Structure formats: structure tokens, C-alpha cells
Amino acid sequence: MPFGLPRVLLFALLWGSASFRAQDAPNTAEQLVKKAVEARGGEARIKALEAQRVTGTVSFGPGAQGSLLVELKRPGKLHMEVKIQDRTIIRVYDGRESAWLVNPFSENAGPAAMTGNELQNIKEESDFDGPLVDYQAKGNKIELLGKDELSGKAVLKLKLSTKSGEVRTYYFDAATFLLTKWEGVRKSGDQEIPVESFFSDYREVNGLKFPFEVDTDSPGSDRVQKLTLEKIELNPQIDDAHFAKPAAPPASTPAATPAPGEENPESH
Fold it and tell me: 24, exposed or middle or buried, with CB in 10 Å at 0-12, 13-18, 19+?
């Protein structure tokens, strides 16, 4: 699955907006993080979330569109489904040490245990507070990269180095502190794939701001991914069984064309 769903989506769900005055411009990375968290809705509201459900649509290009479901629950549980061509790709993490992939487009439909980079990725994805909330306790490091311009608007750039060694760059609108772009490198097996995402159509849900549209590509390739969210539910009731090992998909005839994940070797 390209670009690592729901990672790109989850990065997109973590930021909000706020009014801006020139004298409020952050001068340090710590100040920018504080502004971004406040803009999202504040640390108290963020940490009050016990669960989250996201539904919408996803497109990987012509002939590869489908529905999206992502469920998150503390502490660190994740369940994701992408339904394409009447087949459902499922990724699950139990919040401890076990994660599974069901991919009916592959020869081994699963459920297959995730290991290596894929296991590390889904562990990070399951943190719906985001990598900047309590970043020091999580072993992450930040650096303010200064001002830049994106699509004719001033932005503030922040570099994040995660505990696992991943490096990302965030672009925040200098007038609202909304996240407008994210870029980094995704590891899949022996590959390192550059990825960039653009966030738009911000809406407020129970005092928190979320982008309802996320466009992602991989510079230098034809990989594309578009997420369009339809609904975000905060603190819904989610059965813990959703985060257990999923059942194997029903047997079916192999697809005539590769699944999106095979053309774009990513799991997020």
C-alpha cells in the first residue's frame, strides 16, 4: 500500500489552526511545537482522546479507488481497512508487540505477522497524539529550520529526528500554524522511498482541527495517493476485539493486475 497508510493520514490528523500576530512568531523549535499543539486544540484536549475512528475514501490512481477505515484506541492500538476491488486490506496492531497484515492481493493473503520496519512503522502510527506531543519523552529531537515559502505562502519549517532514526520535515503555515506539508523517507524492506504530503480542507471536530484532504506523492515517481475524509469520530466505543489478530480473507481468484501495495511497495 503506497506511502504507508495510515501513517500519512495520521500525521495529517494531528494539527489545527490559531490566530497569528507578528510578535507571536516563534524563535525556537520548542516555541513552534507549542504553537502547533495549541493550534491543534491544546494538549489537554489531545490527551483527553481515548479513541478515534476515521472513515473516508482513498485513491491510488485510475482503477484503484476504495474506502478507508482507521480506528485508534489507547494505549497504542490500531486497526485499518482499505477496501479496493471488493477486497479488503487490513492492518492491525494490538498495542503491545504484535501486528498483522491481511492482503488479499498477494500470494500470501495472511494474516501475516509484521516484523522489522513494518512493525516499527505501525507502532509509531498507533500514537495518535503525534510525534511532537511529549517529543522529548518519546526520544525525538527537533530543530527549527526557519522560514520558507510554499504555494505563495510563508511557512515555518521544523525538522524532527525520531528515536528510531527517521528524519522528517514539517511545514506550518506562518499565519495559522496549520500543517501544510510533510516530507520524509519511508523504509520498505531494503528500499527508501521519498514521500511528501500536502494537507488542506481543515475542519473543526469537538474543538480539534483536522485536514479532511491529504494529497501524497513520491518525488521522481508516478506514485500518488489521495485521502478524502468523510467523518472523524472522537471517543467512539470500539471493541478491543478489533485489535486482535484478524481472520484470513476468503479464498478468491488472484487479481489480474497488481494491488496498489505491489506497484508501490509501502505498507503506514
Answer: exposed
Q: Give the three-state DSSP class for 95.
A: coil
Backbone angles phi, psi at 85, to 5 degrees: 55, 40
Tell me the pLDDT tens digit for each residue of 205-231.
999 999 999 999 998 888 889 999 999
Beta bridge mates, 84: 66, 87
CA distance 115 to 119: 5
Closest of 5, 121, 132, 79 to residue 245, by C-alpha: 79
Asked if 57 contacts 84 with a C-beta cutoff of 8 angstroms, the reply is: no
Instruction: Tell me if 57 sits within 8 A of 67, measured CB to CB.
Output: yes
Domains of the chain with bracketed CATH: 7-263 (2.50.20.10)
Q: 227 near 56, Cβ under 8 Å?
A: yes
Distance, CA of 199 to CA of 212 (rounded, Å): 8
**pLDDT digits 0-9 by tens, 135-159:** 999 999 999 999 999 999 999 999 9
Q: What is the pTM of this model?
A: 0.81
At residue 211, what is the residue type?
Answer: P
